[in-house]
Amino acid sequence: MHSIRHKQQLGQAMTEMLVACAFVVVPLFLIVPTVGKYIDMKHAAVNAARYVSWERTVYFNADTLDNEPSGFTAFSHNQLPKKSDYQLAQEASSRIFTDASTRITSPLGNPGRSSWKYHDASEMYQPPQSERPSLSSNGQVPDKSMGIVRTLMQGFGSVVSAITGILPFSSSQFDAISTRGNTQVDVNMSVAQIPNYNNLHGDDSGLLNLGPKGLTMTAQAGVMSQTWGAAGPDHMKSQAQALAPTKLIGDLFNLIKIPGIGSGQNLIAAALLTPEFTDDNLVFGQMDENALPRDKYELPEFPEADDGDSPLCNDQGYCRE
């Protein structure tokens, strides 16, 4: 009986091994690297969204330029760093969705990394020609108060702009408050259907259907950036001086020009015999756009005096000019 039972079990282990390999081991060996490649594609989608959103904080486009305050055009638009939404989307595709060895100056050919292939060497990433990251820039600031806070900010900015620009002789106007600085990026990467593990010849007849739209790697990124990029120190100074009431006094004095005397401020200084009041000594609304903390300069020492060396600043922090 024992011999008969032993003969009946001959080859059972081999059969079990074949079944396990066919339905468990081989699919597992194919699935694990595929899942790893899916993760890599997901990371690429996230990186593309981050790249595009960050570039919009550095580069202008037509919409963001129109949103800049008055006086910004003093800085030539031809010298501004500018990129269109289409250009940023193209850059994301050519820089993120390709191999690391691909030159960023190369024209975009077939996107996709060399590792993004299924076991039958078919491409995992086969996007349509029109598929690239979508970018929405110069959008309204998100407001969870149903737009109340945003409306108040817009109203406050309009009031300040009207007050600082009400005098036609004033050289300054503060109109840099804006609620349009939101950038939103959406990335959708179409993933090709998975071939069956027993399909080894790139034949589409063995595809595993992932649904009517297949598998898509999605990613979103948003960034809120300062919409006012000052067009140089003079532009920044003119905007800030508009908030100084004394600047209007200086503008009033400058309306008067007297040959041999200068501005009305100099006329008043001569009449009152107060040379300290001249426009060389007293500048209304003065702002130094290049001011730095004293410890940011190289501090020379004064020449040696009778009582020894005299440093620019003493131990108590009092400094000599």
Structure description:
The strands form 3 sheets. The protein has a 3-stranded antiparallel β-sheet with strand order 1-2-5. A two-stranded antiparallel ribbon has the order 3-4. The relative contact order is 0.11. α2 (12-56) packs antiparallel against α4. It folds into 2 domains: 6-229, no CATH class; 244-321, no CATH class. Residues 302-308 have low confidence and may be disordered. The protein contains 8 helices and 7 strands, in the order ααααβαββββααββα. It has helices spanning 2-8, 12-56, 62-66, 85-96, 148-164, 233-241, 245-254, 264-271, and strands at 134-140, 180-191, 194-195, 207-208, 215-224, 257-258, 262-263. The radius of gyration is 35 Å and the shape is rod-shaped. It has 321 residues and is α+β, with helices and mostly antiparallel strands. A hairpin with a 3-residue loop joins β6 (257-258) and β7 (262-263). The longest helix has 45 residues, at 12-56.
**Cross-sheet strand order for the largest sheet:** 1-2-5
- What is the overall silhouette? rod-shaped
Q: What's the gyration radius in Å?
A: 35 Å
The whole-number mean of residue pLDDT values reads 75
Low-confidence stretches: 302-308
Count of distinct strands: 7
Number of helical elements: 8
